Amino acid sequence: MSYIRPKFRHPELPKNKLGYTIDYYEGSLSTLCAGCGHDSITAGIIQAAFELNIEPHKLAKLSGIGCSSKTPAYLLSNSHGFNSVHGRMPSVATGANLANRDLIYFGVSGDGDSASIGMGQFVHVIRRSLNMTYIVMNNGCYGLTKGQDSATADQGSKNKTGHINFFESIDLASLAIELGATFVAQSFSGDKAQLVPLVKAAMKHPGFAFINVISPCVTFNNNVGSTKSYDYVRHHTEATATLDFVPEMAEITTSYDEGTVKHVKMHDGTTIKLNKLAQEWDPLDRQSAVNAVINAKAKNEILTGLLYMNPDANDLHHLIKTSDTPLNSLTKDVLCPGSSVLKEINAGLR
Fold it and tell me: Which CATH number characterizes residue 249's domain?
């Protein structure tokens, strides 16, 4: 079996504003199981980067360990990449972001990588408001170690071996909202129409943007009784809204009745257009978002779409007042101003 993607493409593939066709944003062929939801998410990320006209060399993709963390190899082969230690991707992302704030940071993780061994790092990267997009490919099991229940497996769900999970699950989306994430969304790997605009909006958000994507494991967790299977998710999904991401300077048009559409303007002029389905939900109100998730869970439903966003978010660089110039671009004269400056600093501390 070859893992090298064929180079032939249709000569008339559409190009984005940079002149690239979508194959320029692809990576190597996937080695994941046929039908894995992770591959659908990968396709959505590729589509989003293509439509956003991102220059791949200005994006850094990072991951930990797990089936999900293999996916950066399958997208954006012309980007920077780093596959870190299990659960430690946020530390690497933080260090890279502090060194070069001008790159776009895109983290890919799994429910084991983030909700178990990496939970501590996941919590702190949120509270520090690191400017990155963080996607969790959530299948409720440990696919690399034969399908044991993960920390996000729902209480009462049944895995392929017939084992019933007795423990309460960790709801990563609710946790992200509570910890102060300024963009939180949830989606399903089988809903590309919803996922692509969510990824585009997240990548444009100036702070920590989190997307929890239910991604069925076709090998270990796609059976009857699993709450992360394709059939279960399709029959228990409730969307907050149908949405679209409107690029900067584009004309905003709508055919919906007045009062049912909400335009959320972001810091750079781009807009998220929401045709609200859940009328009691306000995407700009944190408490409303938390209540919407809790109410959906009480009805055994999976709430998808944009859950919460703060359009006036600040990132880590703003909070700690770092240099506008990336640290990796500062010269020795700036980084080491001399002993006289050090004496002045010390004098000010006496």
Answer: 3.40.50.970
